[in-house]
Amino acid sequence: MIKHLNLLLILCLLPMASRADDVRAPYFALNSSESSLDTLPLKASKAKVSISGTIAQVEIRQTYANTGAVPIEATYVFPGSTRSAMHGMEMKIGEKVIVAEIKEREKARRAYELAKVEKKTASLLEQQRPNVFQMQVANILPGDEVEVLLRYSEHIQATDGRYAFVMPTVVGPRYSHGSSAGCSSNQWVANPYLEQGKNTATDFEFTLDLRAGLPLKQVTCTSHRSEVQYLGKQHASLVINSEQDPSCMNRDIIVRYRLADDQISSGVLLHQGQGEGDENFFLVDIEPPARVKPEHITARDYLFVLDISGSMNGFPLQTAQKLFNQLASQLKAEDSFNVLLFAGGSDTLSDTPLAATQANIRRANRYFSAHSRRSSGGTKLVRALQRAVNMPTDVEKSRSIVVVTDGYVDFETDAFDLIRDHRGSANVFCFGIGSAVNRHIVEGIAHVGGGEAFVVTSPSEAAATAQRFKTYLEAPVLTQVKLEARGFDAREIQPKNLPDVFANRPITICGKWQGPAIGELVISGIRGGGERYEQVISIDQSAAEGRHNPALRSLWARERVRELSEYTKLKGDEDRKREAVQEVTNLGLTYSLLTPYTSFVAIDDTPRPIDDPATAVQQASPLPKGVLSKAVVSSHSAPLVKGGSVPEPGSATLLLLSLCTLLMMRVRRCQA
């Protein structure tokens, strides 16, 4: 009997052991009872944003300090904008400033580890995802204060006449199935979180200085309470800090602004290198034509793919249902639709598309409500997408797949690859729901699917967003888009293939140029009504206005990296992958750019008085606003931990096996 019971227990535990060893998961951190250890070393994070025209220059100062009694090594996982070009880092200890070097990722890691062993203070910045970064600072002694300064640039686009600058402040808990993207692993997913509703103790400040270059009509902060200061017709500023709002770090900061008469800043920016052999760069924003409504709109078949996993519980799921109601209510009688719900598994409303009748829409709402009340489990997004692309459609209609999710997964590239493999069968649109969604996957799904991305941060935005979606589908702004350079030696243009334009937003193209700054750039395409469209941009005029925009150097390299590594299918073609990895690495080293294959490392060469190895401490993040504790607990077997550290999953499994062994011994003794 005992023998059989032992065998049964071992068979039950083996899958758990295998899974735990392969997959990391977020977990909760509780306050440490060990007073000698400082478990929250990030004391301050201050962001200074300067926007000039359409270019944002951002500086982030992170201050790490050790108020405990033992040396520590701090690790902090933090978010960034999906379009940021991170191009500089410095570390400051006392009055000493060390400028970080950009190195190949493995070389930077080895240099950091060696410095740590040699008892030197060092910092290492790695990219885990295009919008997720990890900072490590080694050998912070008791009483130390180490400041790390990060610099990045970003290009800001207008959509429907409105500009938006977004700064994420927290990484949401990710569901992982053990895959990896690029050269990074999924180890960063094992990030500690504070309990639901608990604010971080980090002193946070965000300042924005906006010089639009054209008269401003309105500036608003839609995510936080902040009073906008108008310092001139073209100049405004605002401040957000944790002193006024202790919870300000639990959601994206979103600042929107409009120019007078809803103008869009369009034209060419030029940068001319000053030294021999220096490269020249350009960036052009081309205002698209006015939207033309076609006389006859083709009937469409919509497949709504809705995320009801544990992380969507509460406000995100309520918002998703409200958004679905709005989207469904706008379907025309000749349209058809279906619904696929997913979490750990998936389920469909119908085996075949349903006519968009009021009765069927009410049936879909009841179906969504019934299942969402039982929402839980992981986010099997790729399996859901696989099922979606294979579901039957009405061949007489144009299909659109509409994905609604918070994107809290770490296998973004698997989703991109799957959608790319089926591109052409449907346009894919993606709605991100939540206060701090994973914008990388939301934007990436739309990018490779030939659709648009939307982010809804509150239920009040659902109706307006659904209306925008309807407008986009009715008549694309421009298709078959092409760029031609006339008398202007433009080269290495990004992106190489211009996508169809659904939204009323400038078409942005960047590249290098040689020779004199003369000639024209010509954009052409087909308007929504089927007419040919062409717009000519003069280079001569832009050259006369100035040729000093150094940020274009980093922005061009960032776009090239994005095209090579983030949305490009690399699986199954090892030669192509090696070439792409090498080119991304070279871009990172040449343009001093953080990439999946290059990292920043700064080392103070003076050894510190340390007797024992520093204790590793992982900075805990607050849960994003509206995300419940269930999102962490349901991601995996997430233990509550103490002091910001947790036994490794493999160790946890071994501990469980040991407990079972002791239990068996006790049973034997009782029987004896």
Topology at a glance:
Elements: H1 2-22, E1 27-30, E2 42-52, E3 55-65, E4 72-79, E5 85-93, E6 96-99, E7 101-104, H2 105-117, E8 120-129, E9 132-140, E10 145-155, E11 158-159, E12 162-167, E13 192-193, E14 203-211, E15 216-221, E16 229-232, E17 235-241, E18 253-259, E19 267-271, E20 280-286, E21 300-307, H3 315-329, E22 336-342, E23 346-348, E24 354-355, H4 358-372, H5 381-390, E25 398-405, H6 412-421, E26 427-433, H7 439-448, E27 453-456, H8 462-474, E28 478-486, E29 489-494, E30 507-514, E31 520-527, E32 532-538, H9 539-545, H10 551-566, H11 574-591, E33 598-607, E34 615-618, H12 630-633, E35 640-642, H13 649-671
Parallel strand pairs: 1-13, 1-35, 2-14, 4-34, 21-22, 21-25, 25-26, 26-27
Antiparallel strand pairs: 2-3, 3-10, 4-9, 5-6, 5-10, 7-33, 8-9, 8-33, 11-12, 12-18, 14-17, 15-18, 16-17, 19-20, 20-30, 22-23, 22-24, 28-31, 29-30, 31-32
Give a brief rundown of this model.
Pfam families: VIT, VWA_3. The chain is an alpha+beta fold.
Explain how this protein is built.
By secondary structure, this protein is α+β, with helices and mostly antiparallel strands. It is built from 13 helices and 35 strands. The strands form seven sheets. The chain has an eight-stranded mixed sheet with strand order 6-5-10-3-2-14-17-16. Keywords: Signal.
Structural key phrases:
single chain; 672 residues; alpha+beta; eight-stranded mixed sheet; seven-stranded mixed sheet; 35 strands; globular; signal; VIT; vWFA_dom_sf
Considering DSSP H and I runs of 4 or more, what fraction of the residues is helical?
Answer: 25-40%
Distance between the termini: 14 Å
Strand tally is: 35
The total of helices stands at 13
- Secondary structural class: alpha+beta
Question: What does the overall shape look like?
Answer: globular
Please mark out the parts with pLDDT under 50 across 5 or more consecutive residues, or reply none: 1-22, 635-662
Mean pLDDT: 85
The main pleated sheet reads as: 8 strands, mixed
